[in-house]
Amino acid sequence: MKDLDQRTTTFSTRGLTKVYGEGHSAVHALRGVDLDIGRGEIVVLLGPSGSGKSTLLNILGGLDRASAGSATYEGDSLTDMTDRALTTYRRDHVGFVFQFYNLMPSLTARENVELVTEISRNPMGPDEALELVGLKERVDHFPAQLSGGEQQRVAIARAVAKQPAVLFCDEPTGALDSSTGRAVLRVLRDVNDRLGTTILIVTHAAATAAMADRVIHFADGAIREVVVNETRTPPEEIHW
Amino acid sequence: MSALNAKLGRDLWRMKGQALAIGLVISMGVMMQVMMSGLVASLTETRDAYYERYRLAEVFAPVVRAPEHVATRLSQVPGVAAVETRVTASARVDVPGRDLPVAARAISLPDRSRARLNDIHMVAGRMFDPTRPEEIVLLDSFAVAQGIGVDDSLGVTLNGVSHDFRVVGLAASPEYLYYSAPGELMPDDARFAVIWMGRSALAAATQMGGAFNEALFSLARGASEPEVLSRLDAILEPYGGPAAFGRGDLFSDHFVTQELSGLVASSTAVPPVFLAVAAFLLYIVISRLVQSEREEIGLMKAFGYTSTEVSIHYMKLVLAIAAGGALAGCLFGIGAGRAMVQVYLQFFKFPFLVFRLDPASFAIGVSASVTAASAGGLLVLRRVFALAPAEAMRPPAPADYSRAGKAFSGIARWLDQPSRMVLRRITRQPGRMVGAVIGIAAGMGLTLSMITLMAGFERTLDLSFTVLDRSDATVVFYGATSPAAVTRLRRIEGVTVAEPFRQVAVIMSNGRRSHKGAITGLTESPQLGRAIGPDYLPIDLPERGIVITPALADILGVGAGDMLTVEVREGAQPVLRLPVAAVAQSLLGSPAYMDLDALNRAMGQGPRASGAYLRIDEDRRTEVHSALKDMPGVAGISLKDDARIAFETIMNTGAGSTRYVMGLIAFIITFGIVYNAARVAQAERARDLASLRVIGFHTGETAFVLLGELAVVVLVALPIGSLMGHFLSSAVAKGFSTELYQIPAMFMPSSHGAAALIVLVAALTSGWIVKRDIDRAELISALKTRD
Question: What are the chain A neighbours of B786 within 8 Å (beta carbons)?
Fold first, then answer.
């Protein structure tokens, strides 16, 4: 197991609250979450739909704003940032992987990665990123010519190519069969090993939890349980 | 309500912005159709009703003097239903505060009964008392223009004798809806008066006791006007004067008919173009709208809905937008038509309105929109139905760009990724892009044709009053007089040039085609009134032959070198055969020119002039005016400034005025097209745009991907729009040209620039609105929704 150095905290939240709507129709997505995530950690957020895990991911990723409480990234307050500052934050520090890949259909695999490397400060080469996800041979293919798993791997390559400090994955294997899903998780693990990227994975698939350093269970907008894995299971041994 | 119908309602609500924009465009096309046809129908009905209610004569027979008993013989002519005789006389009215006299016509009304024909419509005051010869009724529009009221006194010169009359009433007459002073082309309320007075009073003032000098006729149903005319001419020949003529040759009716047919022409030529553009746009937008619902369509099929049920559902959606827009267009059209009719009522001086709508225009408008929308919807639905319903259950397949990627790969190498996205989207679906380009180009074409039209009106004015007619004033004599009159004009101090001209009423014909008009005889190399060639240089009038305008050449179907038959309708009424020597430019009326000496020779008379063009020393204007006022033999004087204003008024309030409304509609349509193009592109790409934002693209960078595409489409559309506008302009200008004035469709770079600018402004505004939405887009929800 990797050493967890509590002094190098990447994310820190205190009393983080998110309410959608007002009055009777108000939905409390997060009810005062306190959480610290260390640099280089793989954290899996588990929980049923509507438990608040995606909301937390979106706030930490700079896609949404908290209603109350604080969230910091490397000591900078995310809750106080302007829209423009949040965009810059995403651009410079964050990679995203989504359930539905969100690739640009009009760009090839390499170009989809270049889309990000062109605007990044310290990117790796697009081919290197695609090699990392095992798609070296298919760099000139358009998304329509790739399978679902391949598309997701391009999405990961796109996310990691800028060498982000943090990688957010929302149901990254949700649309994939299990063997493809395992391959995708393998890639995430490799990225973590080789680049030291902090990775947050939101998923329904409880089995994914085995590859994490820490597993955080969500229910009703709050953390119900935190499980620290003594050993991380290699993704290829995970079954669901 | 079924779930499907609830979905329909909510879908409509969700896309309300776009639905409104689409509906607006089609409603503008329909509105134009309904408005113009309603306007024409209402005005035609109103005119006919006015003529009927005040019994406007169908035939007019002026003579020099005929004894009253002739009327009995006239009434026995087969085809004649009623006869009314009257006395009319040229007169001059002295308007207080005006240094030039105003030409007028005095007309008798029966002393003891209402007029059987050509009755008048009292607007204010009362009818004159036939026992008081000083009482008169004055034409209302003239009184209003000159600020004369009931009970005012009016100095009138009749038969060389000055009278002091009292205005006891103001009236309108269908016979004098429009009239112009002698020798003038354009009607002007302020410069021609009509006075009605008792028959015995007028007869006494003009020595016409027991006689008449004009007979009016109404015709029996089915009577042949030409036959009646020739019989009347046969009876009236011994009493002198020009031939009898039908109502169609009455100046007022001729003018009203011209204006109405101008409206008919512009209402048949222009609105269909607008409607076609709007319908085409509707087709494009609807097909893209349905395309974007592809996933939901697949889902409904997966649930077990049949293709027919799905089709009906989406056709309801499409038709709700199309029919909604069309109905709104009908309502706008009725409203706008009513408003326009009010304007025209004043213009034509109709005392009441018969409002009519043309049901055909509703049918055309609604069916054009519904057909275009259905075609757009069904085409896409058919394509979607070819897909397996399972498609909707899978994550959306990315659009295949592998072929588009190969196109322009050489160029793509030099572009950054966002630019590549723009390029590939355009090359991937060239059909869709062509549709967007043509849509915007058509909008620009409409705008351009309207701008060209406006410039054409300006051009007509300029050409007429600076190039063709360079005089400061035109003097018209009573009939053709000896050149001594012109010499007297030259002697007036302040008159620097006086150029004689002669105007002769004629009927020109070529085979079956004929035209009633006038020939103007001009001096050799004239300075003031000139015939101008196509190159805008003066034409030397030949010793022999006649120079006509393109409009007249069109009417008669002749060109340079052809022979024309010319029947002179005054003096000895000779019939001449004249070659067409040249076709000269004129945008005003349909003049025909001859060398003055040649015209006088053809008339078998010595030198004669019917008037003169004057150039006046600006500093001595007032003196010249007062000298002209006192000069005997002068029937009327028209100042160019007055004439220009009169002409501008006619063009801006008559049939020509619809150009402003049409221009506005063209602009709205153009804007709607561009806005829709931007909106649809945004709807199709919401997800891509959100992804870009998530990756860390700033809003401006994200907007580039969308607006870059719009920019390319707009830039490609500009030259095509220029070309479309060029061709549309000719059709529109033709639709707006009347016999009274011709509107040229000239190529002017500035018009093209202005139209392009309007499209660019529309694009920038649409881009700004769309970018604002991109800035506000909620990233998470955009990502969660699948395409």
Answer: 100
